[in-house]
Structure formats: structure tokens, C-alpha cells
Amino acid sequence: MPVPKQIFDQIRQLIPPLNGKLHKGQSGRVGVIGGALDYTGAPFFAAISAMRFGVDLSHVICSPTAAGAIKSYSPDLIVHPILREEISPKSLRPEMSSLLSRLHVLIIGPGLGREPYMQAFARMALDVAKEQGMFVVIDADGLWMVGQQVDVIKGYRRAVLTPNVVEFKRLSEQAGVDPNTKLQERASSVSRALGGVSILQKGAQDIIATNTEGGKSRDAHALSKISATEAEQNEIIVVDTPGGLKRCGGQGDILSGAVGAMLAWGKCYEEGAFGDKTLPVSRMPILAAIGASMVTRAASRRAFEKEGRGVVTQDMLKEIGGAFSEIFGAEQYGGKFVHTVHLRLEHFEDLSSRAHPDHVIARYKVSSLRLPISPHPVSPRIDKPGTSGLRKRVKIFQQEHYTENFVQSIFDAISLSGSTLVVGGDGRYFSPETVQTILKIASANGVSKLIIGKDGILSTPAASNVIRKYKANGGILLTASHNPGGPNADFGIKYNVENGGPAPENVTEKIYEKTKTIKSYKVIELPPIDISKVGETTYGPLKVSIIDSVTDYLELLETIFDFPLIKSFLTEHKSDFRVLFDGLHGVTGPYARGILVETLELPSSSIQNCEPSPDFGGGHPDPNLTYAHSLVEVVERENIAFGAASDGDGDRNMIYGKGAFVTPSDSVAIIADWADSIPYFKKGGVKGLARSMPTSAAIDLVAKKKGLEYFEVPTGWKFFGNLMDAGRLSICGEESFGTGSDHIREKDGIWAIMAWLNIIAAANKSSSKLIGIRELLNAHYAKYGRSFFSRYDYEEVPSDGAQKLVDHVNALIASSSFSGKTYTSASSGTTFTVASAYNFNYTDPIDKSVSKNQGQVVTFSDGSRVVWRLSGTGSQGATVRMYVERYVAAEAGEKELSRDTAEGLQSLIEVALEISNLKQFLGREKPTVITASRYVNLPLIRYSFFSLFVQ
């Protein structure tokens, strides 16, 4: 028979809204009386089950011999060790009365035992509960008590009895009902024989019955203001919600706690804490029994799916929250209950047409619910994604349907039905809501499995690794990388393909095209998934796996680097080679703790700002000299030999030691030069090297000397992916603090930091003198020469001004008179003659795809060059980046090689500003950020680089 819609609606009325308006205790206060010497687990399970279900307070009333054990199981429980064998129930009654007056429901029986003194205390407590009009649940040895004298419960319709098969047979006999009668009819008969007490008979199917025909209530109808005639009902409900295939001790105690929780909510509803008081109090016992049965059975199934034969009761406790959401949905804003599991019309039967529905035996079967797909009509209005996905202000993503439109467009552009997807991000503001949105849309679009980082946290490199390791079809990453976070800052969504790398341009263009024509998005209104606990949950055909964010990534790094060598070096030089990592409150904090502190056993003082924050601690999570000043200041002040930082999503890095800042261009070149000291490359070899076009040519020199193939690609890590997949690229980098290799398909901040530690440890194996960052720079420049390099960032400038700058430089490039023109520095008189000028276009050597207008380049006759580029990673306005580079050969000598970057590039920067008319078009006298190398080879440490800090 179809499920009556009114049952679900009435149960939902019992559920307190999560609107922040209820005080402690207004979502239920439960007491459990039980806990003799040998039975401490049962009362714990019942009491903690009620709390897991959602009550505010849970008390256990027990013997002193059991109290210590019960309390030790959980500090969340309030334990009253007042059932002392040496005192009488009469003398304890005043204290019991006072205690129960503060509770809404009393659960009698779990761990009660059959000792005469415990049974006597239970009878006294039941008597007090009835006097106070409390709801009561009776289970286990409480049912033994009832069986000895059925009059103690007869007619008290605020009670629910929860017998198992053996207990129900005995109770039937004691109530004068033939135990051979069919179960459903017998349950109804026992309820009627006991004066309308509700029965929940546990079994393969839970049978719930309430029969008040012809009986008199002892709970006084005045309490609920319902006449005896109106209160008459005879209902039998069969709950066959799938449960686990393995039974174990304690599951019945969880059920009694769940029934108690719902009855406690019923009492709060009755007292007006929430709700409209339209629900008859006489319905509450049977509704509580149905709701608790459904949730408990679902929790049992979920636990069994994870643990199999080894399932124990504590596994079920962990699943109550998810099971509750699976059955009923979840409370949303304003305390309104959203029906997140939509029932189709064929699930319902209208009972209003029945002549006398309260006098008819109605048998209802609560079956599994289907999850329909709901389309939401929308209008297309999405901005074009940049080089690393869609990045905008949070308030833009919070606009109605904006986020849903973009996510649906991913599924419209890419066939992902039956796929496995990875979801995670840097934990910035608006991430938790978006994870739930993705879950609903992904399920509606036929995704089979979602792998989600615990708490939604998954660094971009770790996500790339997870996609590759678990052979997922792709991943949706929630990050705006190095951009600020918070309600008034930035948010981002990007899609990574099955190789673990960012979607190539042909895919991002497809997604963008879909955003321009989207008419609707599809959702399945699943309950919110708890992403704070590692484990796997099944919602119909969708599996959701919550994974530890660090474990897989750490295992990967241990296959790449020589951890024993690094650890040995750090241990040996713990006094003269200190390490400091700054997480900038981004996603890499937990990774740094797991690697540096827990694995390499560095002191906890070796990491700072490593607690991920939705707004990155109010800072800007970009690892450069300006925004990572918290690292720079400590390194200089405390003479730290090796400092490092990473950005919001963990794909960028900065290497900075006392007296030496390593530019990203130099960093990737040095890693490439020392690659054979790293086990991963020593074993597999180095296939090729690459850099982004604006990055200095330092790595080119390494490639030429080693006879390796090398590539120059547009800005954007996705351009390295094809080369890696084709086996032609091993190590690559970008001047924007991105460094990585073919171990994954994203740049990787922690990887770069570990590469430097591996190199330093290897360099010191046969050295009597400590070799650090500065010494490695010295050696590299002496071997290859030095590319003086600096980047000027002008952030959030007017878009029209930025476009005018681009148009102006394009006009120069197109002019026949520009090549050969000479410019003179005003400060030094140095002249620069234009050798060539062009827009950088790139043809992918693997798939032959073409990327045009990737930056404007001017080269000079002395080999220097200047690049201007509009960045695609900002969220508001435009960001213009200007890059200047001048190469000095090794033969120039130490004096020239050790020149301060600002000094070495000053003349070229003046000419670059003159050529571009940048100040005029952007209206800025100074850049927002300057990135430049800091090199010191003098006994007296100079701090000239601080002049580069731009406030």
C-alpha cells in the first residue's frame, strides 16, 4: 500500500528547526535509566544515540559501580550514579522526581539488569515519569519489568515499547495475546491489550502498532486536550527501509535512544518551543517510532556497507547523522524544512476520503524512496574563464543560479555520466556551499562516484594526484589560487581533466560556449553530506567517498624524494640550518605539518600560519616578497637558513633564505641542473625542460648544456600537460612562482620546496662546509651566467586603460619603424635598440592546437627583452604584468653577477615604461607588487630589497 504523505509531514513537524533561535534544551533532554555493574555499554549506546540524533542533553541514571565506565566512554553524557543498592526506592524518589522534572523523556531498560534493587528503582522512576506526563521508552530489561506486572504501563499512551522477537513473544503471553498470531495483527493486539501503548517490534521488518480502540488512556487526555473518541486509532506500520546484513549487540539500544530523541522533540513541540501545535500529541509515539526505525535501519545499512562482517555498534553511531539526512533531508535557512527527498505523487495516498480513517486498521509500508531529477530554468550569464578557470568575487558567485550555471555547463560540455570525479579546494569562503551544489548537480547528471577531500580541503597538486591515482575522469577544484579570500574577496571554480591537469583551451572553450546558451540546470535534492568525516556513503546510485587530504600526497612524495637523506641532513644541522615554512593560512598547512613536522620530525616552530582559514587570516596568500612578508621578516630577524611559503591552493612556492631570495626562474633552473640528485629523476631520467614565455631563459641554458629538449609555452600550466603526456617533458616552471614536474599535471609548491631540501642535503653529503641557498646560487651563476629578471604587477587596474596599453604596444609591433629604434635611459644614458617585436603565438607540438596573442614581446640588440601581458587569473578589473630580463654571462665575473637586481635592471625598466606609456594608460605611478631576485655576496648584509615592497 502506498505511503501516506501525512506520515512524513507529521514526522517532519517533530524535527526542531536549525534556525539559531532555540536555546539549549529546547531540542530535547533525554534520560536513560540503566547501567548495573555488568552492563555499561547499553546505557551509553542509548544515551549517545539520542545525542547523535540531535537532542541537546543526555543523562544516564545508573549505579555507582557503572558510572565511571559510562562516563569514560564519552564526556558528552551527564552521569548520575544515584542507584545505590543500600537505599530504598522510596528514599530516592524525591531526588528522582527532581531529576526527571528537568527531562522530556525517560528511556528505561538498556543495561538495567534484573537485580531486584535495579528493577525496583526502574518501577519507581516509571511511576514518577507518568506523574509528570513524560514520554517513556521501554526496552530490554525494562520489558522484563513490564512483563512482571503489565499494569505498570497499561493505558499510558505516552510510552513506546521496543521488544525484539524473543521479548515480543514473552510480552504477548504476559498481555494475554496468542503468541502464534501473525506478527502484524499480534502487535496491534498487544497494543490494544496494554491500553493503547505503542509497540515497535524489531525484526527483519520493524512492525509498529498503536491500537487504542475501546481502551482508556491513563495519560489523561487533558494533557493533549483531545477527547477519547478522537484519539482512537488502530494503525500498523511496516518499516522495511533496508538495514545492514549483520546484527550485533547494542543496535537495539541505538534504536531506543533514537525513539527517545524523537519523543523528546515531541515534548518540546508540545511545550511550544517550536512548531504550530497543530500535531496531535496522541500521534507522537507512533510517529517517533516510525522515524527512529527508518533512521536506525539506514544507519545500520550504511555502517555495514563500510565495515561488512566486522561492523560493530559504534560504526552505526557514526552513521546516524548521514542516515537522518538520507531519510528526511536537512534543515535549511530560516528553520524551514526543505523536502530534499522529493516524493512522487504515486508514493502518496489521500486518506481524507475515508469515512472513518481513525477507526480503520491501516497498514502502511514505508519503502525506499526514489530521488527525482529537478530541472531549474535559468538565463545564461557567465563571464569567460581565465587561464585557470572562472574567478570572480564571491558576491558574483552568490548571485542566483550563477554557480549552478557554470557547474552545469561543465557537465553539458563534457560527457561525465557514469564517471568518477574528484572535488576539493583551498577551503576559501563559499567552498562548503559549493561542494554541496556540485554534489546535487553531479548526481543529477549521472556521475557515479565523487571523491571529496575531508572538509572540502584538497590542494591543487593533491587533487591532481588523486585524479591520477584513482583513475578519475576529472575533478572540480574550488580555488582562486593566490587571490584573497573572504565574503568580499575572490572565489573560483576550475575543471581538471583525466590526466590530472587543468582543462586545455579546447575544453574550456566548450564550457564557456555552453554558459552562453544554458537554459536550465539539473539537481537531485540530496541531503547535505557530512564532509568532515573520512568514509564512504551511498545515495542511491551515487557513491561519495570522503578521503584524508594529506595521506595520498605524502605517499607520492616519498616515492620522489630521498626522505632519509633529507631527515639525516636536517637532524645533523638542526642548529645551523633551521627551516621555516609559512602556509599563509592556505591549504598547505596540514600538508606541511604532516611532512615537515610529523615525517621529517622538525620542531613545530618550523611552520607558521598553517591553519587553513576561509579568508586566509585576512591576508593575501601569494608567496612573494610583498605578501609573504611574515616569512621574510622572521627569516631575516632570526637568521633562518631555509625559508619557504606556498599559496592559497598549494601550487605556488617561494624559496627564501637569510640573505638570498630565489626567483622562480632561477629555482626551476637549479632544480633541473640538480635533477640527478633526486631519486625520481635518477631512476627515470629527465626527458625535457620547459618554461612559460615570460619566464627568464635560465632553464634554457641548463637544457642546452645537458643536451635536453626544451620548450617555451604560453602562461598557464595546462600548456605543459600535452608535453608531459607525450613523454617529452619532465621539469618545468613559470615566473609566477609555479614549479613542477611530470609526477602530476599541476605545478606543485610543496614539491618544489622538497626538491630544494633534497638538493641541499645532496650537496652537503661530501662537503665539509655547509652549503645553503646562497652557495647554490653562487655556483649556478658561475656555471651558467645570470638572467637578471623582474616582474611588475599592476593589479585591479581599469580594464579600458589596460586595453589601451595593449592596443598601443600592438600598434608599435605593427609599425615598420619600431624595429631598429633606439631608446635611452634617462638615469644612466644606457641605450637599447629594438631588435624584434611580436605577439607570442604558440602551436602545441603534440596536438597542433594554436594559442594566439599570449603576450607582447620586445627584444633588444643586447639580448635583453621586455614582455607585457594581461593576466587571466584576476577576479576584478584587469591585471597587467610587465617582465624585464637581461642576461649576464658567467665570464663577466663575480662583481657583475652579484649586482643588485634593481640596479642591474633600472635602465631597462625605464625604457620599458617609456615604450609602453604604462603610467599614462593605467594611471599608476607604482606597481602593486614587484618580484625581483635578492642576491648578496658581501660580508655585510644589505637590505636594499625592502625598497621593492610596495604598500
TrEMBL record:
UniProt cross-references to Pfam families, sorted A to Z: Carb_kinase (PF01256), PGM1_C_vert_fung (PF24947), PGM_PMM_I (PF02878), PGM_PMM_II (PF02879), PGM_PMM_III (PF02880)
SUPFAM superfamilies, alphabetized: Phosphoglucomutase, C-terminal domain, Phosphoglucomutase, first 3 domains, Ribokinase-like
Location relative to the cell: Cytoplasm
Positions contributing to (6S)-NADPHX binding: G111, N164, V165, V166, E167, F168, K169, R170, D253
Record CDD domains: PGM1, YXKO-related
Catalysed reactions, semicolon-separated: (6S)-NADPHX + ATP = ADP + phosphate + NADPH + H(+); alpha-D-glucose 1-phosphate = alpha-D-glucose 6-phosphate; (6S)-NADHX + ATP = ADP + phosphate + NADH + H(+)
EC supergroup of this enzyme: lyase
Gene3D superfamilies per the UniProt record, alphabetical: 3.40.1190.20, Alpha-D-Glucose-1,6-Bisphosphate, subunit A, domain 3, Alpha-D-phosphohexomutase, C-terminal domain
Keyword vocabulary terms for this entry: ATP-binding, Cytoplasm, Isomerase, Lyase, Magnesium, Metal-binding, NAD, Nucleotide-binding, Phosphoprotein
Main location (coarse class): cytoplasm
GO CC terms of this entry: cytosol
Protein family per UniProt: Belongs to the phosphohexose mutase family.
PANTHER family: PHOSPHOGLUCOMUTASE, PHOSPHOHEXOMUTASE FAMILY MEMBER
Name by which UniProt lists this protein: ATP-dependent (S)-NAD(P)H-hydrate dehydratase
UniProt source species: Bondarzewia mesenterica
